Amino acid sequence: MSMTPSHFEQSGFIQWNKRLSSHQLSRLHTFEAAARHSSFALAAQELSLTPSAVSHRINTLESELGFKLFARFHRRIELTLDGERIYWALRKNLDDINQEIIDIKNQEISGELTVYSRPSIAQCWLVPKIADFAYQYPSIQLNLLTGNDEVNFRGYGIDLAIYYDDTVHSNLYCEDLMQESIVPVCSPKYAQQHDLLNNQHQLKNCTLLHDRQAWSNNSDYDEWRAWSEYSGLSIISHRRNLCFDRSDLAIIAAINHAGVAMGRKQLVKKRLASNELIMPFGDKALQCQQRYYFATLNEKRNPKADIFIQWLKNQVG
């Protein structure tokens, strides 16, 4: 049985061969949200609609297209093969539009941005993430300097510094970035050799690895002392110690079976996840008074510094 032209018009097929109308674009937007969430209800929450309104828009869109976008089941929906094709075409175009918006917004933000950081957070946390910043803001040339000293912002042309301590710099504008806690870590091999698993009193037979500039230029054995008091141990007068001026060096030594280091959890997450390091006594972490924070000369910053700060906050989030 052949279809009459009026039937095509009623189904929306003729209209679809023309330019998309604003109503059809709106329905495609609703479809994209429903497909992304695999739920009419969650799409409704995102779009401030009722689930029945979302369902009605999808039904209308399917009628206009002449094929089903979703298979409906009890309490769930799934994209059909045709629906998947439309969804991924939409996602690609939306991603392209989003990238164009980012490029337009950032085209006038260019030039050098100089960031000073404590070495350990730079190596273990910041640098592994930095490719994302470079991708998002290709016009900004990032210069990363590291050290354990307080620096002269103007003298070194520094826009922003990332510190780790409990000091308040009265001459700088500071904002907290993230908290930190410390816990003993070592390699699985070292733990086995020294019978450390759930046996913290065996520390007396181990080499302790120290970052002697953990919180200042003269932190001595402060990290281990603080954790020992928290854990009810007395091990600071230990005979075998290896000392470093950076936390990440102590961690590298621990990975290579040199002893037990005091690990900062924000910086050793990946090492723990990969089993290069373990917490032999369980997660007996001590919350530090020290925290990571960023500092600038004042609250009014150049746009490049503001962009980097927002990026840092997103990475923490």
Oligomer: single chain
Q: Could you tell me the number of beta strands?
A: 10
Number of alpha- plus pi-helical segments:
14
- Round the Cα radius of gyration to an integer and report it: 28 Å
How would you characterize the largest beta sheet?
A: 8 strands, mixed
Shape call: extended
Distance between the termini: 60 Å
Record the strand order, biggest sheet: 4-3-5-10-6-9-7-8
Helical amount among residues, as a percent range?
A: 40-55%
Structural class: alpha/beta
Mean pLDDT: 86
Q: Report the portion of residues in β strands.
A: 15-25%
Low-pLDDT residue intervals, each spanning 5 or more residues: 1-15
Helices, strands, pairings?
Layout (H helix, E strand, L loop, with lengths): L4 H7 L1 H4 L5 H16 L2 H8 L3 H15 L4 E4 L2 E4 L1 H26 L4 E7 L1 H8 L3 H7 L3 E7 L6 H4 L3 E6 L7 E13 L2 H6 L14 E4 L10 H10 L9 E4 L2 H9 L4 E5 H9 L12 E11 L6 H14 L1
Features:
14 helices; disordered N terminus; 10 strands; 317 residues; 8-stranded mixed beta sheet; alpha/beta; 21% strand; two-stranded antiparallel ribbon
Describe this entry's structure for a reader.
The chain is α/β, with parallel strands linked by helices and 317 residues long. The protein contains 14 helices and 10 strands. It has helices at 5-11, 13-16, 22-37, 40-47, 51-65, 81-106, 119-126, 130-136, 153-156, 188-193, 222-231, 247-255, 265-273, 303-316, and strands at 70-73, 76-79, 111-117, 140-146, 160-165, 173-185, 208-211, 241-244, 260-264, 286-296. Strands 4-3-5-10-6-9-7-8 form an 8-stranded mixed beta sheet. Helix 3 crosses helix 4 (40-47), helix 3 crosses helix 5 and helix 4 (40-47) packs across helix 5. The longest helix has 26 residues, at 81-106. Residues 1-15 have low confidence and may be disordered.
